[in-house]
Write a structure and sequence with these properties.
With 285 residues, this protein is α/β, with parallel strands linked by helices. It has a domain of 199 residues: Rossmann fold. The protein is 34% helix and 23% strand. The protein has 11 helices and 8 strands. An 8-stranded mixed β-sheet has the order 1-7-8-6-5-2-3-4, sandwiched between helices. Strand 5, helix 6 and strand 6 form a beta-alpha-beta unit. Helix 2 packs antiparallel against helix 9. The chain is globular, with a radius of gyration of 19 Å. The protein starts with 16 loop residues before the first helix and ends in a 6-residue tail after the last strand.
């Protein structure tokens, strides 16, 4: 596929986005490569639960939403540590929901976990029904992330808590330079961030209005890929670059191509992960 530098962001392009998560393997491979590369930064699911325990009033009778739940990593952590009465994982990808259901299993005996394939702009859920709503690494898939935040606010009880998590717009820029230097995508450094819609610089502003922001924190996450083979596992799964078709889905061939152009060595890159905690204002009379 020939993508010019000004082509639509694949995370926002309705012609591309559904195919990115039509099956779970792509996301699984990308996440695995990143997790093995991480050298600095807390596990995000643990950080989310820590913030929920600190800021949210989640009783055993509460309903908790995990929007854009993906493969269920955060869903499981919420079930195991918060133990709400009901936990609902929501995602637009049926394939990811199937993987989440398998990975989560029976997280505990007191929480009923349900799964909903739905558009997070229009949740088929009652108003003021949830005590906590989490949206981690998903708002940047929406061309109108403020509308998603408004929908989260609608679903929260007055005083309920939203937890929003995203990445910085400059995430993994070191990889842009490497991909361009290797000749795999000469325009790599000119391609816009995948996180332009909802990133560390605008997440607080997106939340303010529908919600009241009570806490924001930023954390550097550092990743060191051991060499070209490890790096190729990640590059073969990211939609950002215009890599030749015969390499785009073949990590071995992609690693060979990197090695022909550049010395094989560890590669370090960073991303800022931002957490915003916000509440739905209490109703006034």
């Amino acid at each position: 596929m020939n993508r010019t530098p000004d082509a639509p962001n694949p995370f926002l392009d309705p012609a591309v986005r559904p195919g990115l998560y039509a099956e779970a393997g792509r996301l699984t491979s990308r996440t695995s490569a990143l997790h093995r590369a991480k050298s600095e930064g807390r596990p995000v699911a643990d950080a989310i639960v820590d913030l929920a325990l600190r800021h949210a009033a989640v009783t055993r009778a509460a309903i908790v939403l995990d929007l854009g739940c993906g493969r269920g990593t955060t869903t499981r952590a919420l079930a195991e540590r918060l133990r709400p009465a009901q936990l609902l994982g929501v995602d637009a990808s049926a394939a990811l929901l199937s993987r989440a259901r398998t990975r989560t299993g029976a997280a505990n005996e007191t929480t009923r976990i349900s799964w909903l394939c739905a558009d997070f702009h229009h949740l088929p859920l009652p108003t003021a029904s949830s005590a906590l709503a989490v949206a981690a690494f998903c708002l940047y898939h929406s061309p109108t992330p403020r509308a998603v935040v408004e929908e989260m606010a609608r679903c929260l009880v007055p005083g309920g808590t939203a937890l929003l998590v995203t990445k910085s717009a400059d995430s993994y820029r070191e990889l842009d330079r490497l991909v361009a230097a290797a000749g795999l995508d000469p325009d790599a450094e000119r391609r816009p961030s995948l996180y332009t819609a909802a990133h560390s610089g605008n997440l607080t502003q997106l939340a303010e209005g529908p919600l009241r922001v009570v806490h924001t924190e930023h954390e550097i996450h550092r990743f060191t890929f051991s060499g070209h083979a490890h790096l190729a596992e990640y590059l073969a799964t990211t939609p950002k670059y215009n890599v030749p078709d015969h390499l785009a889905t073949d990590p071995v061939a992609l690693a060979d191509s990197l090695s022909m152009a550049l010395p094989d060595r560890p590669v370090t890159t960073v991303s800022t992960v931002t957490y915003v905690v916000a509440t739905r204002p209490e109703e006034t009379t």
